[in-house]
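ESCALATION

Customer reports they have been waiting on this structure for their group meeting. Please prioritize. Original submission:
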Amino acid sequence: MSTDRIEKQIELRAPVARVWRALADHREFGAWFQVEMEGPFAPGRTTRGHVTVAGYEHLTFEMIVEEMVPERLFRYRWHPAAIDPKVDYSREPTTLVELALEKTAAGTRLSVTESGFDALPPERRADAFRLNDGGWSEQMGNIERYLRDAA
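Update from on-call: job pushed to the front of the queue and completed.
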């Protein structure tokens, strides 16, 4: 088992264009990811938001968008498991999140890969990996419910 990368997949019963909109539109992304985003996504831009999950509302969410290939790939960097408001994570390396879409007979396969955990400080590495592994499992369910309920 790799300690550097998390990989998850889910088959969504929605067309690629619809899943892409749920990823690429900051309002839709925020709805299922549970973050109120401040502005649109664009490559090279840092976008911030406020976490809306109960008990974590005090946290700021920040991503640096690297690449957006319509209906295929959304890549961004962030500081994983940055949940302690007393810690300055800005000096730590970021991990790379890749959300890839592929058309399937039933709809769309969404693949999530987050890599770069081995570069994190040793004292945070295992917890960040564990929290994000569980977090991505939860987010896969969130986007599935969001697309189903929004249909």
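Sent to customer with the following note: Helices lie at 16-24, 26-33, 122-150.
Escalation resolved.
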